[in-house]
Amino acid sequence: MVLEQEIPSFLAWFGPACLSFVLASIFVVLFAGLASWLTQAAQAGPLEAGDRVYRGVLSGIRDLVGTSPGRVWALARLAVQEAIRRNVLMVLAIFAVVMIFAGWFLDPTNVEPMKLYVNFLLSATSFLACTVTLVLSVFSLPADIKSKAIQTVVTKPVHAGEIVLGRFLGFAFIGTVLIGVMGLVSWAFVARSVQHSHTLDATSLRELRDEEGVLTGYEGRTGSAQDHRHFVTLDASGNGLAETFRGHRHRITPRESADGRAYDVGPPEGILEARRPLRGRLRFLDRDGRPAAKGISVGQEWGYRQYIEGGTAAAAIWTFGGIREQDFPDGLPLEMTVRVFRTYKGIITEGIHGTIQLRNPINNLRSEALPIVAREFSIDQLWIPRTLAVVLADGTVKEADLYEDFVADGRVEIWLQCLEPAQYYGVAQADFYLRAGDGSFAVNYFKSCLGAWFSMLIVTSLGVMFSTFLSAPVALVAALSMLLVGQFREFIARLFVSQVTGDSRDVPGGGPIESLYRIVTQMSITLDLDPTPAVQAMKLADIVLLAPMRVAAGLFPSLATLGTSDFVANGFDIPFDLLAAHAAETVGYVVAFCVAATFCLRAREVAS
Amino acid sequence: MVTTVPVPASGPAGAGEVVVETRNLSKVYRDFWGRNKKVALKPLDLEIRRGEIFGLLGPNGSGKTTTLKLLLGLIFPTSGDAFVFGKQATDVSKNARIGYLPEESYLYKFLDAEETLDFYGRLFGMPPAERSRRTAALLTMVGLANDRKRQLREYSKGMTRRIGVAQALINDPELVLLDEPTSGLDPIGTREMKDLIIDLKQRGKTVIMCSHLLADVEDVCDRIAVLHQGELKELGRVEDLLQVTGVTQIRAAGLPAAACEEVRAVLARHGAADIEIGHPRTTLEELFLEVVRDTEARPGRRARSPVTTATEKAQE
């Protein structure tokens, strides 16, 4: 699974996030205050304008403080009634059609059918729920203002904040129901779609015997199900595993029947899982065994994975911390995804050979190398036993205990090396992990639906905010534009960092002025500019321009970052820290948009 | 609309207490660039006291609805102040004591009558039992008890007006603002609405209504303000404003024709000019209502003229 950035703990994330929130809030308050003052000053003069803005802010705060849950509840009920009587639940029928199409057209022979189903259905759920609540939220208030029904509401003791909150909660409730129903149905669809079983005909198995003719096991293929079959290798007693194919495998057990031996093929393993990984930190050694900042780039533009050269001293080293004997009493369940870059074809059906070693980070004691074969597109599992062999300097071999000899202060290093010269292993930090446990797939699916729910909440509050001062179609376009710009939020943040640090490798091309200069002069973004005073001044101006852009970028929600379907599709448990961060981010946006909406609604005349 | 709703008495109020006050209140509508587009209301000073029925009178576009909206805080004044119960008109807390019937009864069409009143009752924070009681009583009062489960989109204009009245009274308001209250009502509905307004006054409520139907205003209002082109043109008690001081009116029933001539001679002898002796006209509203009442009392028979009826009564 691709995990570009390490997931920080919630507490580590919260501090900087709060700072960004405060900075963005100050930015908005100053901007809105200035705009209000200028508008009022044009009509009433600067002093009167200042007084009006001051009184407006004070009464707005009083408005928010005096919010009545009872009135909010009444307005939320109204929003729900409105939505239901406009047949909004018909969207469930649309979702049913989506499900039918998914059943018809999603390719069950796909290499990774789980990813296909989960990504498609969770995306459809999120898209439909967000679309419905966005349309409801942008059209509702302008429609009320146009029909003047709002006049019978605001002439009751109702605060602007209550109207905003009531609408938001009502439409959010509708969205929640939609996501709940669609999530439940899609979960059942996914679980049912990937479940299958094979048959294994005992007569089709071929006996394996050693040189002395002793039976060592059996091999053969399972029967076909869902357009695929598995190779099976069984031991002499008939127990074994089918080879991993399309991301899953089956356990095979023998039984005696009237016709002789028969085999039971178990349900698919490796899908409908929620692995809880314990991840380490990755560093590299170059081909001469010296520390390197990165591995080798094999020329792919997106450098998520770094490569190590085979047949050299190059190594990828993960340092795992927090390893306790009570968590892994029998050994370390290592799971890994190793990509392969071949400079020559070799035998394409076979993997590339390499080794795994354990190393004590304190006394440098290294275990004997454990052989691995890297295959593409599958998660390889390696059980690191409790007792490992160690080759001493004099060539003798002794046994060493995992916890007594290799784990120091809860830390251990795992070294990966490629054995085949001129072939390369590609790895990223998230590719190696110790399987610390398993969560429930259903719960994990539910957690992923929470991502869609967070998106829906943000979209709804955004729609309500724009609907307080724009007409419905314009509010819809404004909300969509804001969501679109939000997709570039991370880019702007990285661009700012690259400009401030002067390290343009992450985001080459520079800020707005430098980019314009490069466009006009048709200069490639990969070429460095000569550090002349003019260029220095241009870069400084870019930083000045980018600073407010960096702060303003935080105003735009990025729905893509809230999506967690990749975790489910790849069989990983969604970390609580990530979920908590998404929840806090959602709360931040919703509160900010609702407060902004309250002030916008207060500032406008609802009658003309 | 014939039943009177049993409502708790309004809070204690000092007679003559100023309920609504405007000081130099004006409204200018501007375009996007801030340029003046229309002067809707020129500086207006008004005081409306508790227990009054106050009429804002004027042709279309005279500023009466603008005044009402300014008092409700629906729009903001360009200059001046509006106070309701001593609070700024933009202060929403004043709305707890106000009932408002907009011109077209702008309500949520997807709700039924019962849900509508329940919703507005919730906005006032009324407890469920009271909401339920008030809803039932008001629906009976406006004659919609049998249609309480129908969505408002199925209502006729008159029914919509009635449910609008009910929502305006859900909180038993001290001050009722009615924008064109008889608009869209048939003569019976109009009469019932006027009876209701008078009933509200008798229960100590203050009523502000704006209308361009002069007869309606004349029938119910204690005081009126006449607006034209956004400017206050006349303000005072209805009877004072309408009294024609230079003319004397004598009314009598059962006077024979000879006596009429005798009266005319007496008046002429005293120097009276422009003497008119004839039979007074009833109003079309009176005629219509009498016909309806008579038809209901004697189904299947031609209705008797109210004039005839009056003569018969006089002869008896």
Give the arrangement of secondary structure elements.
The complex is a heterodimer of chains A (608) and B (316).
Chain A: H1 10-44, H2 46-65, H3 69-85, H4 91-105, H5 113-147, H6 150-154, H7 160-194, E1 206-209, E2 215-221, E3 231-235, E4 240-242, E5 249-257, E6 260-269, E7 274-279, E8 281-285, E9 291-292, E10 306-309, E11 315-320, E12 331-336, E13 339-342, E14 352-359, E15 370-374, E16 380-385, E17 387-391, E18 397-401, H8 402-406, E19 412-418, E20 423-427, E21 432-439, H9 441-467, H10 472-486, H11 489-501, H12 512-521, H13 533-553, H14 565-569, H15 576-603
Antiparallel strand pairs in A: 1-2, 2-3, 3-4, 4-5, 5-6, 7-21, 8-9, 8-11, 10-20, 11-19, 12-16, 12-21, 13-20, 14-15, 14-19, 17-18
Chain B: E1 18-30, E2 36-49, E3 53-57, H1 64-72, E4 79-84, E5 87-88, E6 98-101, H2 113-123, H3 128-141, H4 157-168, E7 175-179, H5 187-202, E8 206-211, H6 214-220, E9 223-228, E10 231-237, H7 238-242, H8 257-269, H9 284-297, H10 306-315
Parallel strand pairs in B: 3-8, 3-9, 6-7, 7-8
Antiparallel strand pairs in B: 1-2, 1-4, 4-5, 9-10
